[in-house]
Design goal:
By secondary structure, this protein is α/β, with parallel strands linked by helices. It is built from ten helices and 14 strands. Strands 5-4-1-13-14 form a five-stranded parallel beta sheet, sandwiched between helices. It has a five-stranded parallel beta sheet with strand order 7-6-8-9-12, with helices on both faces. The chain has a two-stranded antiparallel sheet with strand order 2-3. It binds magnesium ion. The site of magnesium ion has 8 residues, from loops.
Length: about 260
């Protein structure tokens, strides 16, 4: 596996992609920057939309948000082809039944939770769902830390520390907020459920959506520690990509079209 952001050689891309029946693609830093699709990713997705699923650790957007961005570039996908760590984390909390849930996340994500019938509680919680909360504050940190100290379970959308933004900026990610919580409470004593990559759930859900097995698909992503490591653990072949470098998508186009 690559140790840094070194793209695969054209020969390697051709070897890996030739037999692929489907594609799992990461979003931030792979297909998009700040939720803007790159032209080369858009061209690829338009051609392969029927056999591609998005597998993203994004936890601040809904599936509808993604459908809007994709449609703007002429990409038509079904809802189940968009597999997002934030939405899945909320789904997982909904499986716990009638319990009190504290969701640290954007208001639109709390609305997703409410629509699933989840009982949201700012103070007392059996479950804390930690998403990329762009309104994270001292008070939210205090309430979540105390809920965990009192035995609440933690559902973490994703462990990423940052993702690439536009113009060379980094965007702090959910893992950075987890680090703040971890400085207040001993996370070794907390039941932590990690939903996003590199955990297997999102990849398997995406494979199901495409009706393909892990051996039939390849994963494209920009993060060796999450995208590629998680794929490798499931026997999914993978290629390292970068949103600001068209090479991988252009080479893929020569091999599989698009
Ligand atoms: Mg990425």
């Amino acid at each position: 596996m690559a140790h840094g952001p070194m793209p695969n050689s054209p020969t390697e891309i051709a070897r890996v992609a030739q037999t692929a029946r489907g594609f799992l693609v990461d979003w931030d830093g792979c297909c998009a920057i700040d939720n803007q699709l790159t032209p080369w990713a858009a061209a690829f997705l338009r051609t392969h939309q029927a056999r591609t699923a998005i597998v993203s650790n994004n936890s601040s957007n809904t599936i509808d948000d993604f459908l809007v961005v994709l449609r703007k570039s002429g990409v038509q996908m079904y809802r189940n082809q968009i597999v997002l760590a934030g939405v899945e984390a909320i789904d997982r909390a909904s499986l716990a039944g009638q319990v009190e849930v504290m969701v640290l996340g954007d208001p639109r994500m709390r609305a997703v939770a409410r629509n699933l019938g989840i009982r949201l509680n700012r103070d007392e919680a059996d479950i804390v769902v930690l998403l990329r909360d762009t309104r994270f504050s001292y008070s939210r940190l205090e309430r979540a830390a105390n809920a965990l100290r009192k035995g609440a379970r933690l559902i973490l959308s994703n462990p990423d520390l940052t993702h690439p933004g536009s113009e060379g900026w980094i965007k702090p990610e959910t893992g950075a907020l987890l680090a703040a919580l971890g400085s207040c409470v001993d996370l070794d004593k907390v039941d932590v459920d990690v939903v996003g990559k590199p955990s297997p759930a999102l990849y398997l859900k995406a494979c199901d959506a495409l009706e393909l097995g892990p051996e039939d698909v390849i994963m494209l992503g920009d993060n060796p520690a999450t995208d590629l490591a998680g794929a490798q653990a499931l026997g999914i072949r993978s290629l390292l990509t970068r949103a600001d470098a068209p090479e991988v998508f252009e080479t893929l186009r020569q091999v599989v079209g698009g």
